[in-house]
Amino acid sequence: MSEKLPISVHVLTRNSARTLGRALQSLPPCSEILVVDGGSTDGTVDIARSFGARILEERSGQNGLPNFAALRNIALRNTTQPWIFILDSDEELSQELRNALMTITASDTPAAFLVPRHYVDRDGTVVLHASTYPNERVFFFHRDVAEEWIKPVHERIRLKPGTAIRRLQGTSLAALPTIEEFKEKNRRYIAVEVQESRDRGWMHWLRRVAHTLRSRTIATVRLLLIWLIPRRGKRLPLRHELLRYWYAWTLLVQTCPLGRT
Q1: Which domain holds residue 190?
Q2: C-alpha distances in Å from residue 143, one per residue of 81, 152, 173
Q3: What is the pLDDT of residues 9-30, one digit of tens each?
Q4: CB within 8 A of 224, min separation 6: which ones?
Q5: Looking at the structure, do residues 152 and 226 belong to the same domain, yes or no?
Q6: Backbone dihedral region of 29: left (phi > 0), alpha (psi from -120 to 50 degrees) or beta?
Q7: Do 167 and 136 form a contact (C-beta atoms < 8 A)?
Q8: pTM surpassing 0.85?
Q9: Separation between Cα atoms, residue 223 and residue 245, nearest integer Å
């Protein structure tokens, strides 16, 4: 397909040279690639430019911590295309997902779409079963239905009231991190959430506790079903599943008002 799709691809990077090339290579021909880079020193920017990306450098952040919604809003303000696709720097698109983007952008009807996400093991095997599945995010939408990104971590797009949300066919494929990579990534997330909660009181923390109890209960039921009932396909390794409990507990402890100085 020689004609480029009317899509602006938004990517956040910081020292993402190891995976960025594969991520951008997996895209269909898109009219624009915007890379918001947080000060990479490993060749990330050169790789992005080799794919024709426009680089938006942004090194600010409170106490050196990123605000992912603010970074995504930079890309949103600079986009020139009617459709926006969010790509993480460690993801690749399945062929089915590429085909879906081509089909949808043939119509200019504004809408938003959930993009499924699956892990891929280092041997190329797709992880079909995990307690977080279906892992879907509104990562493809028409510019006219988007207001702004909110939340400094685990960010999400705020859509205009009445926006139709549909589900895309296909999936984005993310490399399964090692245990240490997973822990390091979540330590950064925890640091951002602790900073964001700094001026919040007990009610905010108690709502977080309630949300955590609910989400972990649901995840536990799913986890038991995954591991107790025989099924075909690869399951997310149990150590990775258990690290989500570590993340939830650590976040509650570190954001508790009682422990703040």
Answers
A1: 179-259
A2: 8, 21, 24
A3: 999 999 999 999 999 999 999 9
A4: none
A5: no
A6: beta
A7: yes
A8: yes
A9: 12
